[in-house]
Amino acid sequence: MSASSPADTSPGPAALASHLGYWLRYVSNHVSQAFARRLEDRGVTVAEWVVLRQLLEGETAPSQLAQQIGLTRGAVTRLADRLIAKQLVTRRASATDGRAQMLSLTEAGRDLVPVLAATADENDAAFFAHLPPAERAALERALKDLVRHHGLRAVPID
Predict the structure, then answer these.
(1) What is the CB-side half-sphere exposure of residue 139 using CA atoms within 13 A?
(2) What interhelical angle do 20-41 and 46-55 show, nearest 10?
(3) Does the residue 43 lie in any domain?
(4) Which pLDDT tens digit goes with each residue over 80-109?
(5) Of 30, 100, 103, 151, whose CB count within 10 A is highest?
């Protein structure tokens, strides 16, 4: 631009904070990080919690679990290996197909899931309890509508 040309008056890029996605990510990061710290105190990761909670529904093949939570079979196998090492999950051959394997909670795993669920409830309360019930319900409806509208399937684990 030469010294005699008028100053550029175009608006330029929008500020980060002008984007709804920025605020969604801002809150999500803080909620998720606090939850991850709470779970770490209990000796599990968020991804392990998701697997444990899903296995509370009953014995499941790793491939079915992968489909349910939106992870690859390899990722589920790695998570299962970690949970087996922690003695929270068992792996055994399927009764109907000896080549297939099934995952289930151990007694320690079944005992831990309600403790972790209470931890999730505490984390939610820490971030959202100050909202009036109608606002909290509206926020939940809006988020679920976004999930439906965009066909989101993978369970958030990060």
Answers:
(1) 14
(2) 80
(3) yes
(4) 999 999 999 999 988 887 778 999 999 999
(5) 103
Query: How far is residue 35 from each of residues 52, 78, 110, 135, 139, measured CA to CA in Å?
Result: 15, 21, 20, 22, 19
Alpha-carbon torsion angle 63, 66, 70, 76, nearest 10: -140
| CB-CB contact of 101 with 94 (8 Å) | yes
Contact 105, 64 (CB under 8 A): no
Strand extents, DSSP E, the chain: 89-93, 101-105
Residues 149/157, Cβ–Cβ less than 8 Å: no
Residue 9 forms part of a structural domain: no
**Predicted confidence band of residue 10 (pLDDT cuts 50, 70, 90):** confident
DSSP state of 92: E
Section 48-76 average pLDDT: 94
* 103's tokens: 């995952």
Q: Which domain holds residue 57?
A: 21-148
The reported pTM is 0.83
- Tell me the C-alpha distance between 122 and 141, whole Å: 21
Does residue 12 lie in a domain region?
no
